[in-house]
Each structure stands twice: as C-alpha cells, then as structure tokens.
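Board notes, transcribed. Complex of a protein with iron/sulfur cluster.
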Amino acid sequence: MTPFYRNFGQGKKTRKIHSGSNWKEITKAGNIYEPGNASTYETGGWRTLKPVWNEERCIHCLICWRYCPDASIIATDGKFDSFNYKHCKGCGICANVCPVHAIDMFSEDEIDEQKEARRNE
Ligand code: SF4
Ligand code: SF4
C-alpha cells in the first residue's frame, strides 16, 4: 500500500499515516490529499458475499460493468472477462442488474467450506 503523509504546516515535519496513527495524526475530517489512492486501497477484504460468474448464461451486455461502484468488473474486447476480487466489496449490485442472472452471490464462508470439501475428496 502506498504510504500516506500528513504535512503539519510550513516548517513542521511531515508524518506518515498508518493503521496505528492516533486521532491527532490523521487529517481533519479524514480528507484525502493524495489523488488516485483508491487503486492502492484494497476493499476486497470487506467482502462477506462473493459474486461468481456463470459463463453459460452471460450474454456479455456489460450492464454489470456499468453499474459496479468499484470498477471491479474487468471487460476485455467488449466482453465480460472477470472480477477484480481485490477491490470487489461484494455489494451484489452486479447480480441484481444482470438481466439473465449470470452472477450468483455466495457467502465467503460457503465458498471456503466447498473448497475444503473438495480438498478432502
Ligand atoms: S450483466 Fe450479466 S449478462 Fe451482462 S455482462 Fe454482466 S454477467 Fe454478463
Ligand atoms: S459485488 Fe459489487 S463491487 Fe463486486 S463486482 Fe459486483 S457490483 Fe462490483
């Protein structure tokens, strides 16, 4: 993750902001002074539900791509390609807008259990 620094004013030192920074060190109102930092902030860790694509049903209309609030749907050559799970928060909007129900939402726990069951087969 790109480090974020807060400048305490002219002639004062600049400090690095990190998860252990106290409230006096963070910016007022949580303002962000570094442009484009959303790409380095991986929100996928917030997810409890995971979208799973069904290739057979997909008609590549890319409605999901237009509606995803996190730009987490990757399209290649005008077709659905994959999810960017590093940034997908699992909001389920893509599954809701898909006209042919080609995206199913599964709980992360359920997926982990399925993987574990497959490993034990
Ligand atoms: S909205 Fe559904 S059908 Fe359209 S590209 Fe996305 S997954 Fe495929
Ligand atoms: S679940 Fe939400 S964040 Fe994830 S790909 Fe679908 S619309 Fe985007």
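The longest strand covers residues 49-53. Residues 53, 58-64, 80, 98, 100, 102-103 surround iron/sulfur cluster (ligand 1) (CB under 6 Å).
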